[in-house]
Amino acid sequence: MARAGRSAMAIKVSQSINCFVASDPRLTFHDGKARLYARIGINHAEPKEGGGWNDLEPTFHDLVMFGKSAERSYEMLRKGDNVIAQGSVQTRPTVDDDGQEEEVEQFVAKRIGHDINLTTYAVQRKRSAGQEPASREAPAAGPATQQLRQPPPAPPPPPPHAEPMAR
């Protein structure tokens, strides 16, 4: 619902997957354009009777990424990393070892980053000397009021099925 004087904008959504990097990422160049390839694994679980989760075998898929994002991701990703990728599932025709045509499915990532629920890391923010960090607070909904910045609440622990499986 739009508020008086504001236009309504829909929340943009896209496909994403949470997975682990199952192979060493490879960076290649075709006609000067970077292409990242990695095999990824997606963990699956099913509910147990009486509560809890049974871990199932992971499924494995191809992930590709292009351009400067591919180059940067190649520098940051390692086999075993837990990541979240945003993009889309695409199929492309290929020929198998027996000369038969088949459709191959791959996830084409536009963005990728480490899963903060499963990864511990430090963030290094770039700032100019003497520059104050920009506020990322949403504008007030009503008349201008003084807002005190509160620290964000601690994230909830991940559900039992989100734990990475032994590989």
Automatic annotation (TrEMBL):
PROSITE patterns in the record: SSB (PS50935)
Which UniProt keywords are given for this protein, alphabetically ordered? DNA-binding
Q: Which domain of life is it from?
A: Bacteria
Show the InterPro entries listed in the entry.
NA-bd_OB-fold (IPR012340), Primosome_PriB/ssb (IPR000424)
- Region annotation (Disordered) ranges: 123-167
Q: Where is the composition biased (Pro residues)?
A: 150-167
Task: State the name under which the record lists this protein.
Answer: Single-stranded DNA-binding protein
Q: Which organism is it from?
A: Jiangella anatolica
The taxonomic lineage of its organism, from the top, reads: Bacteria, Bacillati, Actinomycetota, Actinomycetes, Jiangellales
